[in-house]
Design goal:
The protein is α+β, with helices and mostly antiparallel strands. Helix content is 26%, strand content 29%.
Length: 396
């Protein structure tokens, strides 16, 4: 019978609570397994959570040179406990003899890490390349010791990395129900070499969650996935940069340098309120929030401070003074519910109640008020008290 089959039978028997006392069973098991050992999982114990240790058993086939004292030391038990478990009267052993060895597993210890492996806490400014260089490792070796990493470029501040200072290889956590034999078989290694690399003297030392170093096996698959992820992230970052550059180019294209000759008017009787300017912000929604809104009620015409501002259409001045966000500003009523506003002025040249003609100087460009960012004229057209797009009223 194959080793794996015998081990499954033994484990199944323990789970089912079947007795293992008949010598015939032990002798047959020893004969079939030769010099191998079987590690049995601890039996279920309803009080285990209240104790610091729980019982486990190992099945050991005596080899030439074995002694009870050495076995007791290897398994962390006593000679008397082994003798009692097996009904032995003396300490003499015979090669091929089958023994049950009682063992106590501590449950209050954290995960075991392999010898020659240290922990490193990620500091501010650390990178995988920098950490690897610091400890004389390649990035692949560092990733192999930490195969749960999800990025080659981002490592959380304060995260703990495992640093192999002696043997290099892949470090994995022992899954529930998995043994050193299973890992050795999975990675094509001799179980003895795997045990030696991890300083394991007894398979019963290990428990689920313990970290095992697989010597000479590097996590090339994990590294390849992280490299692919890095390439994709860089591609997306480059795409975002291209989109941003295109957006900025479109925004710059909207900032027009415009010049209109004096007196030129639209079909609706309006002229531009400044003769030479740059349009830096249009009517409508924008990213800038002012007074709790990102809707821009007019257009911004950038020009040097002191540039003359002209009445866009003939009408009567109904306000000339200060506004919190508008700064110094003017309102002109053109009749029929149509009104224009001129904000952020450096100086006002008209007074309330005054009648002005189209093209008459009413003030000068400035940067007054909380809503001003640089020298410009904020110009609005309102119909029935509602802001409309000024571009529709101005000459093209």
């Amino acid at each position: 019978m194959a080793r794996a089959k015998w081990r499954n039978l033994v484990l199944a028997g323990v789970v089912a609570g079947l007795p293992f006392s008949p010598r015939a069973f032990f002798d047959q098991l020893a004969k079939d397994m030769g010099q191998m050992e079987v590690v049995l999982e601890p039996q279920a114990d309803p009080l285990a959570s209240l104790r610091e240790v729980k019982e486990a058993w190992a099945f050991h086939v005596v080899k030439s040179g074995d002694a009870l004292a050495a076995l007791a030391a290897a398994y962390g038990t006593t000679v008397e406990a082994i003798k009692k478990a097996n009904g032995l009267k003396t300490t003499r052993l015979q090669p091929g003899q089958a023994l049950w060895i009682p063992y106590q597993v501590k449950t209050d210890e954290g995960p075991r890490i392999p010898p020659g492996v240290r922990r490193y806490v990620v500091q501010k400014g650390d990178t995988l390349e920098g950490i690897a260089k610091k400890f004389g490792l390649s990035v692949l070796e560092l990733v192999s010791a930490n195969p749960t990493l999800d990025s080659l470029d981002r490592i959380p501040l304060g995260a703990t990395l495992l640093i192999p200072e002696e043997k290099k290889g892949r470090i994995v956590a022992l899954a529930p129900g998995m043994s050193l034999f299973d890992l050795a078989e999975r990675y094509g290694l001799e179980v003895g070499a795997l045990a030696e690399a991890n300083g394991v003297k007894s398979p019963l030392e290990l428990k689920a969650g313990d970290l095992i170093l697989i010597p000479g096996i590097l996590a090339k698959d994990v590294y390849a996935k992280l490299e692919k992820k890095r390439e994709e992230e860089r591609r997306l970052a480059a795409e975002r940069r291209r989109r941003l550059q295109a957006q900025q180019a479109r925004r710059r294209a909207r900032v027009k340098q415009v010049s209109y000759r004096p007196g030129k008017a639209s079909l609706k009787g309006f002229q531009w309120p400044v003769r030479k300017f740059r349009i830096t912000s249009y009517f409508g929604y924008r990213r800038l929030w002012i007074a709790g809104s990102n809707f821009h009620n007019g257009i911004d015409l950038a020009a040097p401070i002191g540039t003359p501002v002209y009445a866009a259409k003939s009408g009567r001045v109904i306000f000339a003074g200060w506004g919190y966000y508008y700064g110094r500003y003017i309102r002109i009523d053109h009749g029929g519910g149509v009104e224009t506003r001129y904000a952020h002025l450096s100086r006002i040249a008209v007074r309330p109640g005054q009648y002005v003609k189209r093209g008459q100087i009413i003030g000068y460009v400035g940067a007054s008020g909380r809503g001003a960012f640089g020298a410009h004229l904020h110009f609005e057209v309102r119909v029935g008290g509602r802001a409309v797009n000024p571009i529709r009223y101005l000459p093209r």
